[in-house]
């Protein structure tokens, strides 16, 4: 993948499936006292997306750090986005893997139609 340089996974540990990650997120949210309403989770997702956008803009765009500011790691911000996205999926009682499969299917269908295949 273009730009895929992150290899900091735990040695010898298989990555989680989306369903496993969604279950782990559910366990952590329940341990913290439960879910916020879906609209509040959506607002949290937008907040986390903004933090990721700022990090990417600092790395690749014209934005510069403020004096004394420590740069955030894009990996950490992306992780926060994924976590909150799974929180939102759980709060809406949606299976994220099924949603992603459907989105990939639609994208592949559009790609095949645009290439004339």
Structure explained in plain terms:
This protein has about 120 residues and is an all-alpha fold. It has a single domain, classed as Helix Hairpins (Orthogonal Bundle), CATH 1.10.287.1080. Helix content is about 65%, strand content about 0%. The chain has 4 helices and no strands. Helix 1 (about 20-30) crosses helix 3 and helix 2 runs antiparallel to helix 3 (about 75-90). The longest helix is centred in the middle third of the chain and has 23 residues, at about 40-60. It starts with 17 loop residues before the first helix and ends with a helix. The model has no long low-confidence stretch (mean pLDDT about 90).
Query: Segments where pLDDT lies below 50 for 5+ residues?
Result: none
CATH fold-level topology: Helix Hairpins
Instruction: Name the helicity range.
Output: 55-70%
The CATH homologous superfamily is termed MazG-like
Q: Count of DSSP helices?
A: 4
Measure the end-to-end span. Answer: 24 Å
Amount of beta strand:
under 5%
Helix/strand order, N-terminal first = HHHH
Structural class: mainly alpha
Looking at the structure, what is the overall shape? globular
Count of β-strands: 0
Gyration radius, rounded: 17 Å
Q: Using the coordinates above, name the CATH class.
A: Mainly Alpha
- In CATH terms, what is the architecture? Orthogonal Bundle
Strand count, sense and barrel status of the largest sheet are: none
In total, how many domains does the architecture comprise? 1
Mean pLDDT: 91
List the helices and strands and how they pair.
Elements: H1 18-31, H2 38-60, H3 74-91, H4 96-114
